[in-house]
């Protein structure tokens, strides 16, 4: 099989995927705690890792994809106490809601949805094993893991044990050996759900649940563990500690997806903006899917790299729907044709040199840490090629776009209902244009031409577009604009394109033109320079 490379959060390096069992991949991705309505944070992981699993399958792997349901937790118990509704009824309702959203979003690769409440006996056995190995101890109110006996504790998150404080879900207890020790089993309190155990009636702690469910479904050691970046500590750090202490290597590779932003600012549970009901509503799954459509939500998440943050401001969502709508309209009747071609069949199709190169770019992007954003950019390039062709050649290129997209979950029959005819305004165009600007700027930085990179940033700043560089890439946000942001972004692009033409780098010049054409911007070259216009 061709080599696939992926970034391992644990080693902080990109490495070749080497499955434990040739041809088979075991992947575990943390799922939701089912006590309230789903929000986009619950759906990001399944969508992004569904694209990962789809590509692994396309490359010939058999994938077992486990996505758990946390149906025992303090939040569920508190909701049951507050409402008087049975905890089983609460979890059943919100589990069904979650699974329904996954179906709408074409998340089809998950093979297992284990529920914590179904795994109490193996959790008790697992805890007994940890106690027998002197890696856990019985305290006054339950059983705790002894973090001081875990060599390298903190290696995933980069935290030092001496600097750690107890995690948010850990009740501080004078009987703990260390304040970072975490609960494996909690003694029952009145009115709480409980199960019999050697330590009295109680329930499992949060971290042990995932360690045991992954162990029961995938084994002591497995290939990939995924989840949101916010789970690295304490949850994933504690999973590693438990898994290694139990006797296995636990997950060989850790993949973490970026988190949610709004206009370039991180959104979290403690964000004061979330106290505003109208603001919080924008992140609810039902609002997003009903307002923008499941296809748009999936497309927006896949436009970038899975490790990057995703902005869910209305301008970003509208831009994603517009860009996807253009693709849908180009595909026309091909969009609703059933079926899916295999990657082997797709790679065997005869193509022109340019189209073959773009097809290669899609495949190379996915093989390189599942870079869906770069793959989609190459699909836009193929659409531009189709626009320049005619007849069966154009149809064949569009069918290629559709079939490549379907390999990662895009362009499903019926998706066109989610994208309506729209006029392409400047707000809709700014996001895809800025994606291109930042990609070109990154190329400039890669050549160490920092003067040009800074000039790009400064030009954008004059239009109120603030560019922020980070180790995982650049992001942007619009503040108060002194001039139209789209105009400034297009000035940057045309200046870079002009520089490429002066340097006789016509491949880059054409690539920029094609990328703009794909999002509805036409570039015309003239004796005094290039001009641009947007489709209306």
What is the topological layout?
Layout: E1 5-8, E2 13-16, E3 24-29, H1 40-58, E4 62-67, H2 74-83, H3 87-104, H4 120-132, E5 136-139, E6 142-145, E7 182-187, E8 202-204, H5 206-218, E9 221-228, H6 232-246, E10 250-257, E11 260-262, E12 265-266, H7 277-281, H8 285-292, H9 294-302, E13 310-311, H10 314-331, H11 343-347, H12 353-367, H13 372-388, H14 391-407, H15 426-446, H16 450-461, E14 465-470, E15 473-478, H17 485-502, H18 506-518, E16 521-526, E17 529-534
Parallel strand pairs: 3-4, 3-9, 9-10, 11-13
Antiparallel strand pairs: 1-2, 5-6, 6-7, 7-8, 11-12, 14-15, 16-17
Give structural notes.
The protein has 536 residues and is an alpha/beta fold. The protein folds into three domains: 243 residues, 3-Layer(aba) Sandwich (Rossmann fold), CATH 3.40.50.620; 156 residues, Orthogonal Bundle (Isoleucyl-tRNA Synthetase, Domain 1), CATH 1.10.730; 109 residues, no CATH class. Helix content is 46%, strand content 16%. The strands form six sheets. It has a four-stranded parallel sheet, with helices on both faces.
Question: Order of strands side by side in the largest beta sheet?
Answer: 4-3-9-10
Mean pLDDT level = 91
CATH topology of the largest domain: Rossmann fold
Low-confidence region ranges: 166-170, 421-425
Overall structural class, as computed from helix and strand content, comes to: alpha/beta
Portion of residues in helices? 40-55%
* Main sheet: strands, sense, barrel: 4 strands, parallel
From the N-terminal CA to the C-terminal CA, the straight-line distance is: 46 Å
Q: In CATH's first tier, which class of the largest domain applies?
A: Alpha Beta
* Portion in beta strands: 15-25%
Radius of gyration: 25 Å
Number of domains: 3
**What would you say the CATH architecture of the largest domain is?**
3-Layer(aba) Sandwich
Coarse morphology: elongated
């Amino acid at each position: 099989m061709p080599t696939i490379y992926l970034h391992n959060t644990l080693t902080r390096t990109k490495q070749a995927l080497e499955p434990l069992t040739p041809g088979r991949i075991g992947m575990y991705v943390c799922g939701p705690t089912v006590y309230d309505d789903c929000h986009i944070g619950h759906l990001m992981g399944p969508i992004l890792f569904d694209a990962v699993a789809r590509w692994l399958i396309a490359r010939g792997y058999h994938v077992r994809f486990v996505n758990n349901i946390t149906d025992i937790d303090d939040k569920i118990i508190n909701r049951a106490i507050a409402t008087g509704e049975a905890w089983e009824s609460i979890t059943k309702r919100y589990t069904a809601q979650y699974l329904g959203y996954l179906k709408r979003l074409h998340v089809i690769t998950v093979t297992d949805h284990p529920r914590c409440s179904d795994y109490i006996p193996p959790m008790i056995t697992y805890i007994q094993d940890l106690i027998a190995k002197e890696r856990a101890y019985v305290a006054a109110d339950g059983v705790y893991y002894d973090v001081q006996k875990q060599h390298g504790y903190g290696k995933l998150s980069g935290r030092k044990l001496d600097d750690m404080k107890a995690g948010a879900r850990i009740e501080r207890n004078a009987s703990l050996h260390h304040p970072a020790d975490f609960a494996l089993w909690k003694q029952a309190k009145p009115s709480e759900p409980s199960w019999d155990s050697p330590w009295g009636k109680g329930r499992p702690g949060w971290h042990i649940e995932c360690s045991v469910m992954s162990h029961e479904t995938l084994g002591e050691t497995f290939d990939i563990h995924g989840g949101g970046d916010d789970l690295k500590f304490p949850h994933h750090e504690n999973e590693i500690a438990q898994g290694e202490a139990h006797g296995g290597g636990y997950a060989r590779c850790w993949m973490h997806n970026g988190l949610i932003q709004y206009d370039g600012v991180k959104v979290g549970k403690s964000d004061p903006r979330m106290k505003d009901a109208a603001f919080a509503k924008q992140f609810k799954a039902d609002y997003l899917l009903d307002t923008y459509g499941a296809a748009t939500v999936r497309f927006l998440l896949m436009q970038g790299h899975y490790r990057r943050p995703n902005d869910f401001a209305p301008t970003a969502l509208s831009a994603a729907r517009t860009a996807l709508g253009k693709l849908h309209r180009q595909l026309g009747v091909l969009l609703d044709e059933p079926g899916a071609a295999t990657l082997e069949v797709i790679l065997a199709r005869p193509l022109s040199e340019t189209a073959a190169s773009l097809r290669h770019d899609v495949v190379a992007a996915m093989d390189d840490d599942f870079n869906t954003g770069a793959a989609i950019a190459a699909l836009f390039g193929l659409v531009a090629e189709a626009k320049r062709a005619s007849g069966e050649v154009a149809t064949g290129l569009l069918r290629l776009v559709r079939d490549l997209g379907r390999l990662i979950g895009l362009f499903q029959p019926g998706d066109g209902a989610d994208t309506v005819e729209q006029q392409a305004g400047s707000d809709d165009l700014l996001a895809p244009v800025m994606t291109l600007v930042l990609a070109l700027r990154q190329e400039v930085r890669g050549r160490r031409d920092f003067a040009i990179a800074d000039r790009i940033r400064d030009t954008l700043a004059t239009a109120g577009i603030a560019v922020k560089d980070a180790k995982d890439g650049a992001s942007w946000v619009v503040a108060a604009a002194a001039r139209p942001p789209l105009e400034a972004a297009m000035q940057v692009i045309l200046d870079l394109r002009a520089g490429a033409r002066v340097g006789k780098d016509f491949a880059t010049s054409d690539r920029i033109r094609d990328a703009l054409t794909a999002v509805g911007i036409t570039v015309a070259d003239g004796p005094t320079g290039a001009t641009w216009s947007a489709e209306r």
